[in-house]
Amino acid sequence: MSRIPPVAPSDAGILVRLAYRAAAKMVGEVPEPFAVFAHHPKLFFTSLTQEFAADKASTTLPPSVRELAVYRVAWTLGCSWCVDFGTMIQRLDGLDVDRLKEIGDYETSPKYTDDERAAIAYADAMTATPDSVSDAQVADLEQRFGRAGVVELTFQIGLENMRARINSSLGITEQGFSSGDACRVPWESADARLTPQAEHPAQR
């Protein structure tokens, strides 16, 4: 259970309930971070808009590069919800999720390309406190992905740092998205569940 309980549909406003239903149709269940953020509707919709816009705008990098960098941040910071959800995203994108077991050995694992290793190393450098990004590292990334690619990678890594730290601080943990059998948010009242239940996770 998260440190702040999620807002049950019966206690939410109409717009939040509609957002819950849309999210459940897309990924199989209401993501618990959404339900916790619903205590602050203005930030709820700010976060929702940012996530949707960032996803639609991030088309410069190969999905494997972008998603591995984001996953590495979640793994590094110990956000089990982000690791769980990120695994599902990679599976839906048709990526090899089995290799995520070797993310700790990405520098030597043959399952990662040089471009992917460079992106993961950048995620590590950005996530360190203080960050350890170097001029040479950014120049190398620019050669690989172009300037727009570097900006996209930087934005996505920064966004995941924010997500992971928020979720971990609020005690939001994995929901079972990676297994394809996502668990319902543990609403405080038993009669607050969404109906009807989403039948299956949708493709992105």
Automatic annotation (TrEMBL):
SUPFAM superfamilies: AhpD-like. It comes from the Bacteria. Residues 53-124 form the Carboxymuconolactone decarboxylase-like domain. InterPro entries: AhpD-like, CMD-like. Signal peptide: none annotated. It holds the Pfam family CMD. Gene3D superfamilies: AhpD-like. This is Carboxymuconolactone decarboxylase family protein.
